[in-house]
Amino acid sequence: MKQYTNVLAIIRTAIWDEPFAGTVEEADFAEMQRQAVLTLIGPCLSRYHMPQYLYEKWRLSCIQQVSGYTRYRYFQDQLPISVPYVVLKGTSAGQYYPYPEYRTMGDIDIMTKREDFDIAYNELLANGFKIVKSLNRETSFTKSGFVIELHSFFASLNDTKKAKYLDDMIIENINDSHSLPDLVNGLTILEHISQHLEHGLGLRQVIDWMMFAYRYLSDDKWNSFKKLADDIGLVKLALVLTKMCEEYLGLPSLKWCEGSKVKMSLCEQLMDYILSNGNFGGKRNDDSAISENVLVSTRNPISIIKLLQQRGLINWDAAKRHRFLQRFAWLYQAGRYISKGLQRENAIIKVHNEYKEALRKKKMFDELGVIQASKGFIIYRDGEYKKK
């Protein structure tokens, strides 16, 4: 945690106007870039003491971010879709920031009502959007450098009833405004963190939650939100995230969180994990997949084969050229992991340590109640929710 002290202090100054007496270094720039929070400090950039070259570099990044946000927002607002839809994450999370234009944006995620999905799908195609990939959960389109993800469902919880409950709530609140009510929007922010936490999540998504909690979750609104979060099994995650943000990111203390009895050791472990992963696991190297495989396989051997198969299809060039080899991709990937693992210096000790760390992470995920691949994801197919 110590190596990230400066980064956390920089963020607290940017959001909460805390004094900052240190010096900003190149390493801070790189870390905030990896966490997808680089331009948060744009409005107060001149307040930080840093080398002139770094100031100019950071300033240029902020200018590009604001310019990109303007184009992003215009593109989003001009989507050629005639049926009602809602925008998830992205600008829907950014609205709670003091300066939404400084929040880094990614894909534009949208969801329609069930009966309107095909209409939106065909309208995007008719207006020059190209399909990048098509999954059960969403179809990705691209045009003019932007990616649109049209969701057939959003929730990826481990329980069919909970997944249906959240998706139904989203669908019931879709209207021509393209925005969800705050109460439901907060649930999607929380569930998005749960979706991705096992495979790596960065500070951007954590700050999304922090700003929502600060802007919307007053004491009188917490009870209503708590009931809904409890219905999808994510109250514990909401409490731990909030307490963690109070401790490390400067979130003013919220009364509804004071009596939650959240263990600070769990908050510290979670923050360490988030900082070590970066935005969507961007800081993880291939070696880290070994411990992830251990984490998954200790609970469900079938899921490790699925993960190996998925990674093998990405890494095995021969399988890309010869279709008949694709069924053996999991064997190739298993050999790749074993080979890379044993080639390292002190390999046996490292694998042992990774195994222990994997067990520790698994315990943390269990305590938080977040989604884990080994327990099976819920998907929506043929008009019903099923466990994948």
Provide a brief overview of the structure.
The protein is of the alpha+beta class.
Describe this structure in words.
The structure is a single chain. With 388 residues, the chain is α+β, with helices and mostly antiparallel strands. It folds into three domains: 2-73, no CATH class; 81-281, Beta Polymerase, domain 2 (2-Layer Sandwich); 288-387, no CATH class. The chain contains 17 helices and seven strands. The chain has helices at residues 5-16, 26-34, 52-77, 90-94, 117-126, 160-172, 182-196, 203-216, 219-231, 235-248, 255-258, 264-277, 288-297, 301-315, 317-321, 329-343, 347-368; strands spanning 85-88, 108-112, 130-134, 138-143, 146-151, 378-381, 384-387. The strands form two sheets. Strands 1-2-5-4-3 form a five-stranded mixed β-sheet. Strands 6-7 form a two-stranded antiparallel ribbon. Helix 8 (203-216) packs across helix 10. The chain is globular and about 60 Å long. It starts with a helix and ends with a strand. Mean pLDDT is 88; it is low at 293-298.
